[in-house]
């Protein structure tokens, strides 16, 4: 783990960098849970619509079953130094019921349309209730950039620890 050489970003810069990553990256880790079998974590392709993360998985997968039974989930981008963690509730849409705009944007990003597959797919939408972002130890304090669904002030001040 890299712990030196990082410069502390202010809240506005950290928020901007996080939104850029959510818009541009391809993969996100989705953690779900089953009451008897415990945690389950998988990497999925995702599309950020400006308010929520959209993912897609097989309708019969453990991920789909878990999200339907227990919608509280956690998400993370795949970088252990430039950390972005999201928490929210999963909304699930069978491929035949997904909003067209979301499915079309997902297809445009990846060149793959789960709605055309023979096996059924489930779209999962997560509007984050919290987002934590930090780059190295220098940014652990003030790492909360979204809390209870509201972005923390973007004036460079504040932020929860």
From TrEMBL:
The keyword Oxidoreductase applies. Keywords: Oxidoreductase. Pfam families: PNPOx_N. It comes from the Bacteria. Residues 24-134 form the Pyridoxamine 5'-phosphate oxidase N-terminal domain. This is Pyridoxamine 5'-phosphate oxidase N-terminal domain-containing protein. It comes from Streptomyces lasiicapitis. The lineage of its organism: Bacteria, Bacillati, Actinomycetota, Actinomycetes, Kitasatosporales.
